[in-house]
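Why Peptidase C39-like domain-containing protein? Reviewers of the renewal asked for a concrete example.
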Amino acid sequence: MRYLKKMNLFKKIVLFLLSTVIAFNIALQLVLTLSGAGLTVLDIYAQTLPREDTKAINYSPGYFMETKSYFEKQEKGQCAGFSSAYVLRVLGEEISGRDNYQELGHKFSNGYVMPQALIDIFEKYNYQVNMFSGNLEQLKTRLNQGKPVIVLIGHFVSWQHYVTVVGYDEDTIFLYDSNMDTDNSRGYNRTMTNEEFLSQWKNEIPFFEQIYFVVEQ
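Here is what the prediction returned.
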């Protein structure tokens, strides 16, 4: 009799927890739908959180990518597709930013893309990719490995933007920014001081401040 009571209590607890989880997910999907975000609950659960970068700091005083690609000017909200296409072309894949953007998943209704989409697209091409959270020294260390690094800059919900870091010197970060005019002559089309870059890299998005995507062949 005591055993049966315990089993009944256990079943009630399980049923309550299951009902709570289902109700939470229904409520979350309702919020996503009513807000017009364009996402589903599955998009939320698919999102990977960034890892803390533990690689030993080791970078040169200045660095600039030797292997470059051509620039493209994005359409509104398509920075994820264009920044990742740039890196894919450096890796030897021939794809345009527009076509690459169409392949991305996890999109908001305004066209913005969740970080998971960048992980998915590089894995689709059989590249290993890590999304790290770290500081400027760690970012420079990763760039010294010889491949461009995508970062997310912005200001909370006002705006968020993926750009590609291609080099740096003591005071300046050199970027490929697909939202600016193209310029093939210097191998970059935007510069930011360290202070300016850090202020935007601390984008005020919980769990996703100072993130960067490192791709390995």
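Helices lie at 2-35, 41-46, 79-90, 97-103, 115-124, 136-143, 194-201. This is the kind of structural detail the renewal will allow us to pursue systematically.
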